[in-house]
Structure formats: C-alpha cells, structure tokens
C-alpha cells in the first residue's frame, strides 16, 4: 500500500513539473565557416570561375548574327551554336538527361560527391556569397561576434551592404537565367524601358529569390535536408570508392602537445584536436566521426588538416581522399588506383561511353531537312476533267539550317504520276512551312486501290541533301 502511495506521489510530483517540448528536428546553429587555402580550395575556386564564366557569359556569345545559345520558347526552337533544334528533337534532350544521370553515377562510384563539392550550383553560389560576406563583415570570428552583437549603426550598415550585394548578384543571376529563354537584346531593351513581360518578371524574381535564400541563408540546410542526392548517395558507394577519410588508426588518441613532439612519446596520435577541420566544413560536420551523408566532398578539411600537420612537422594525409579498403589494408596510391576499374565503374563507364557515342553519331548524321507527309483524308481520290485522278497531300517541311534554301519536290511510284502546280519554292532560314500538293496520275496507271508512292525532296545546289518519304496514292474504283 505504501509502495502505491509512493508511486502515486511520484506521479503527482512529475505532474507538477513544467512540461518541456522536445523538437523532432535539430535546431539550426548558424555556421560561420572559417576560410582556408590549399590545393583543393584552389580547385574549388577554379570550378567556381569556370562555371560562372560559362553561365554568365554564354548568353552574350553571338553566332550567325543571333544569340549563340538560346532556348527560344516563343519560337519553339533551341539554338545551340550552329544547331537548330525543334520540339521534335526532344529525343536529344532525353539522351542528355540520361548521360547526366550515368555521369553522376559513374563519378560518384569512383570518387564520391565530386559534383556536390566542386560544381553544384548550391556549392558554387554559397562559396560566392560567403566570399562577399567575408569581405564586408570580416573573418569567421568577426562574423560570429557581429551576429551576437546588438543591432547598432555599424551592424546595420554592414548587413545592408551584404544583403544589397547579395540581392544585386541574385537579380543578375535571375536575369541571366531568363536570357537563355528570351533573346538577350530584347531583355536589355526591357531593362532600359522597364517593359518586361509578366513571365520574364516572374522568373527573374523567382530564380533570383531562390538564389538569395538558398546561398545566403539556408546554405548547408539545402544539402542536408532538401537535396535528394545526399540521401541516396550511400547506395552508390562501396569499399573502393574514393571518399574523404580520417585515418583513425594514425590520429587517435587525440590531444594537444607542443610543436614537433613525437606523438608516440606522449601516448597520443597525430590529431592535436584543434577542431579546424570542423571550422572549415561548410556543412559543420566532424570528419573524424567517419563518413556522414552531410559531407559534400569539398575537401576543405583536407586542406585545413594538411596545414596543421605541416606546422607540427608531421606527415600530411591524416585526413585525405582514400577508400575504406585502403585505410583498413594500408594501401598506397598504386593499389587504390588499381581498384578503380571494378565491375561497377566498368559498367557505368561502358554505358556512359556508349550513350555519348550514340549521341555524337545521331548529331553527326542528323538531317538538316525534315519532312512529314499527311494525306488529305477529306479528298481520298478525285477524278479530274482530263480523266486523271488527284490526291491531295500536305507536306510539313522544316529547314533546319540558318540558310535560305530552294526546295524541289518530285513524286515517283506510278506511271505518269506528277505534281499539278508549282513544285519548287523558297524556304526561309530555320523555318517551317506547310505545303499543299495536288498529285495526279492517270486512272489507268494501276488497278483501283491504294498504291505506294515516294516523295523526293531535294535542295537546289546541294545534292547531298535529299529526303525520301513514303506515302500512298488512292485510285478509286
């Protein structure tokens, strides 16, 4: 009985205590990433420059007196340097998406999240935004102090300058994005007159806003919680995938010591537990805890650790690119490279090469004159005054080059079959035209019924371009 009372009393005491809400989600801690230099950082910035020069510069390139790369939605044509693609060429887009997917699989199987660490737009723009932030607010320590300081004139000025710079870059990014789908000269004229169309304003603000929010504020949250690649990357890794690893056998136990002290004489590993590898990580993880899905493979921790090892006169490579098998079996670079060519990478690589070759062959053999023939079903076969039989056809002809052409059409397949009326006409560059043709044949050319015929479409002055399309000619009973 007393036990029950004690139990009841305990429950009553717990009921009197205030309830504490436990969140299902980790509270985000603002990361003030420390700037680092080194070989991998240089590579990362080289990719930033390359990708952004391509992105911002491509709309300004001129080809054949027009924008070199223009996915013109209004005209429903994609101009890519000397090529003109039409909606019917969506097959090539599908092939490009397949190549991108297999390329991602291949490089991930070989060396982990190279795309995430060096070329992903989220990584690239986060790097740019953090560089702007550092130039205005100072290094990571100054930024942390500024974030904790109360709002005053100095803090307000720095925040306004930072957000203003971010906003201008974001708007320019949105403008450049729209310039891939709407001619740049028209957009520039709209800037002068502020005569943007509704969809142009929407996409400039939409793309610019997401750039501002993702790269300026969310940063690692996008990689950790929104990007699906971070979630399924693990299934593409195996023990021979190159990833950023911490050599626990060499580094543990951690601990501080004086410069130049042999760690074995003090019973410690090479890691001095300085924490710089965590301070430079853009996602805030500790690589010493092992590979984590938040790791984007940027290798900033490698540059940081190598500098610390240099100062301590220890060999580099405590944190390095390696594989699970290499760390466990103490392999060198030769053994690691020997295991790159394994069934998974060979399959991905073989499929990738085959698809790329198929795309190149398809583009090389792509006809620059396309014809679709449709019979006029309202007039299957009409007897004319001279006794001949007339069938009407509609030819949809696409001139897929940016040159004016003279198109000639002939028809074969039945004795005496011919085109009634003009069979030659001019086509404008990169144009599509619909042509109605009256094709006639003697009633005695064949037995009543449907008979195969062939349309031959050629280009005057260019014998290499000849398109043959089959159709049928109906002779009524």
Describe this structure in words.
It is a single chain. With 477 residues, this protein is of the alpha+beta class. It is 44% helix and 20% strand. The protein has 17 helices and 16 strands. The strands form 5 sheets. Strands 8, 9, 10, 12 and 14 form a 5-stranded antiparallel beta sheet that branches. Strands 13-11-15-16 form a 4-stranded antiparallel beta sheet, with no helix packed on it. A hairpin with a 4-residue loop joins strand 9 (382-383) and strand 10 (388-399). Helix 3 packs antiparallel against helix 17 (343-364) and helix 5 crosses helix 9 (198-218). The chain is elongated, with a radius of gyration of 34 Å. The termini are far apart. Residues 1-12 have low confidence and may be disordered.
In short:
The protein has 477 residues and is of the alpha+beta class. The chain has helices at 2-16, 39-57, 90-111, 114-119, 121-137, 140-148, 153-179, 184-193, 198-218, 220-226, 229-232, 248-251, 276-279, 300-311, 324-329, 333-338, 343-364; strands at 62-63, 66-67, 69-72, 77-80, 83-85, 243-246, 319-322, 369-375, 382-383, 388-399, 405-412, 418-420, 424-427, 432-442, 449-459, 462-475. The longest helix has 27 residues, at 153-179.
Count of the separate structural domains: 2
Mean pLDDT: 88
Oligomer: single chain
Total of DSSP H or I helical runs spanning 4+ residues? 17
Approximate helicity band: 40-55%
What profile does the largest beta sheet have? Answer: 5 strands, antiparallel
Structural class: alpha+beta
Radius of gyration over all CA atoms, rounded:
34 Å
Distance between the termini: 109 Å
Please state the overall shape, judged from the principal axes of the Cα atoms: elongated
Enumerate the spans where pLDDT stays under 50 for 5 or more consecutive residues. 1-12
In terms of DSSP E residues, the strand content is 15-25%
Tally of strands: 16
